[in-house]
Amino acid sequence: MTQSASPAKEDGGSGPGPGTWKRTAKSGGEGPARTAFFRADVRTLSLIGVLAVLAVIGGVTKPDQFLDTSNLQLILTLASIIGVVTVGMTFVIVGGGIDLSVGAIVALASVWATTVATQEYGFAGILFTSIVVGVACGLVNGVLVAYGKMVAFIATLAMMASARGLALQITGGNTQTVEISSVLDLHARESYVLGIPPLVLIFAAVTVIGWLVLNRTTFGRRTVAIGGNPEAARLAGIDVRRQRLYLYLLSGLCCGIAAFMLIVLSGSGQNTNGNLYELDAIAAAIIGGTLLTGGRGTIVGSVLGVLIFTTISNIFVLNNLETAVQQIAKGAIIVAAVLVQRRTSTE
Amino acid sequence: MPENTSRRGLLFGAAAVSTGAFLTACTSNDPKESSDDDAKDAPVADEKPGKKVTIGFAGPQADHGWLNAINVQARARAKKYKDVTLEITEGSNDTAAQIGQIDTLINKKVDVLVILPADGKAMTQAGLKAMRAGIPVVNLDRIFDNPQAYRCWVGGDNYGMGLNAGHFIGEQLKDKKNAKVVELAGVDNLELTKQRTQGFDAALKNYPNIKKVARQAADFTVESGQSKMSQLLQAQKSFDALWNHDDDQGVGALRAIKQAGRDEFLMVGGAGAKSAMDAIKADNSVLKATVLYPPTMAASAIDLARALGQDKGISGLAEFEIPTSLTLYSAVVTKDNVEEYLPTGFK
After folding, report:
1. Nearest residue of B to residue A62, measured between CA atoms
2. Where is the segment annotated Disordered (chain A) (predicted)?
């Protein structure tokens, strides 16, 4: 199975095929696996390096405001929601797909979970509805892509449009505020665990579980295999279609969790929620080292990607710089990150 | 084929406009000359049923509270008049789609058109076409590029909104030395955001003791309001007043302020959402006032359209004709006058 899934993404490289695959899957093997570990480490280290540089910039320009526990809590909190979405997105991309509907699913789930009717069921009702709506949307995406043989780009684009539309239909354009104190208090300072906001704990849990699933389970290996070469994966006996369905379900689940977190953070549901999440999540995954063509990617890289973007935006706000400058910087960083990656992967 | 139609339409349109202009000139002058001091220029406020008027209404997609309120106000006002039939189109943010909808309304031969363009400049041609077809256009809020494209413009005053917010804050802080003010703006690439900020800055210039220490742009969503405000609070450890351009994003901003446990400043909102007015009335948060951008302008537009359709003037003015331009006042709603404005607050 491992052998047949070999021709991974590095085109032009004349290196040994199986090695390439093993490197990404981190499955056994002596020589190639060690270089793989080393390479993954280089990539992760370079991302940590970027974060360190950003921390220095922040610390030098605004020492009092940036280097401060409350600011660290703030950055992690703001990263947590898009971070959870990005973990799901990373699975989909590694599996050779794309999910453009994440922002719209977050919007729909957050809106559905904050209607007057749902709020009658309190905390549990809101949590349950967010997650079920997210998973249901993921199910539709998965069925369309895996069994309906639709191109992922198109299927999830359709979901993006209709989920946003449905969200607008439900709210009628109004902002639905949440009045349930158990939900609102989840992000109150009193709920912090050892100084860590609960939202950040959820983010950490999702990250750890995501990392374990991608790196330590058959599910994870299958994901990499169908992303690297679906035909080979099929010949190796993997049910490619079912695996694809699972990946979109997983992304939907992450969106549902993110929607709940957003409700807690903002105390409301609005159909404009999750605006451009799809682009933020894809960008974070890409600069984290996930190949857009599938077959390779790391959860740690994606999470670092999210943290980098959030930290940049934090430094910009603390220094009171304009939105335009911020957007330019974001674009430049994506291009730079992808260029650096190309270098490390072809060398 | 389409070219033929439009050329023909243009010819007919031009003919219709000239005859239309000629006719209106005649009708409106004749009675005036015959009865000088007689206030026979039937006032608009007159609720008695008159000539039947069909009003076509085309607006953008009501994807947030204010735009939703625009539709509600227009519908409610039209219902009030027995002689008015309202042809309302499905809202669209797509310029091409909206042009198509206006074409349809022109073909249906409505008597008057009320247009709130998704994009004023881009929709100018649609306004011109309607005017050429002899249908007077009431341009609501987002102004066309060309004065020939509308008979009457009615809309809010973004500059005035900033001005009034600045003056209100200035008066509150005038006895305070080295007062610091923070601005949470709306979507930065919109003209209206620039105008609001210009007005705000102009007003603050009258108070040399006040300095604007920070300005960040959110994007009118609760989520962005929460995110930007939480970081602004981190950046500014202490300040005296905050102006937030938009009450929708204000829901998120208020949540961030509560989460940070800050209350040393006073906050002024913008637009006039019901949630903001409720908070001002309750007087239990930092929010002490909001500057209106009144959605009642849609009701006024229906009034103007009805008057145009019935060839009537406006009451309380000496003019025989309806003015070509009406800029509405951005009132400051505080605890003292909130009761009066609460019914106009949007969700």
Report:
1. B235
2. 1-31
Is A193 part of a structural domain of the chain? yes
Does residue A12 register a pLDDT over 90? no
pTM of the model: 0.81
* B230 inside 8 A of chain A by CB: yes
* B62 within a domain of the structure (yes/no): yes
Q: Which of A80, A184, A261, A270 to mutate to test binding with chain B, by most B CBs within 10 Å of its CB?
A: A270
Q: Is B321 a member of any domain?
A: no
Residue A287 sits in a domain of what CATH number? Answer: 1.10.3470
Domain count, chain B: 2
Contact residues on chain B for A181, CB-CB shorter than 8 A: none
Q: In the prediction, which pLDDT does A216 show?
A: 94
B85 located within any domain: yes
B216 in contact with chain A, both atoms CB, cutoff 8 A: yes
| Banded model confidence at residue B273, pLDDT cuts 50, 70, 90 | very high
Query: Which among A265, A271, A323 has CB closest to B226?
Result: A265
- Asked whether residue B179 falls in the same domain as residue B303, the answer is no
Residues A17-57 have pLDDT tens digits of 343 444 444 444 444 555 555 556 777 888 888 889 899 99
- Count of domains for chain A: 1
* 3-state SS record for chain A: CCCCCCCCCCCCCCCCHHHHHHHHHCCCCCHHHHHHHHHHHHHHHHHHHHHHHHHHHHHHHCHHHHCCHHHHHHHHHHHHHHHHHHHHHHHHHHCCCCCCCHHHHHHHHHHHCCCHHHHCCHHHHHHHHHHHHHHHHHHHHHHHHHHCCCCHHHHHHHHHHHHHHHHHHHHCCCCEECCCHHHHHHHCHHHCECCECHHHHHHHHHHHHHHHHHHHCHHHHHHHHHHHCHHHHHHCCCCHHHHHHHHHHHHHHHHHHHHHHHHHHHCEECCCCCCCHHHHHHHHHHHCCCCCCCCCCCHHHHHHHHHHHHHHHHHHHHCCCCHHHHHHHHHHHHHHHHHHHHHHHHC
| ipTM reported for the complex surpasses 0.95 | no
Instruction: Let me know whether B151 and B203 are in one domain.
Output: no
* Together in a domain, B216 and B259: yes
- What integer pLDDT is reported at residue A330 of this predicted model? 79
Judge if B261 and B143 occupy the same domain.
Answer: no
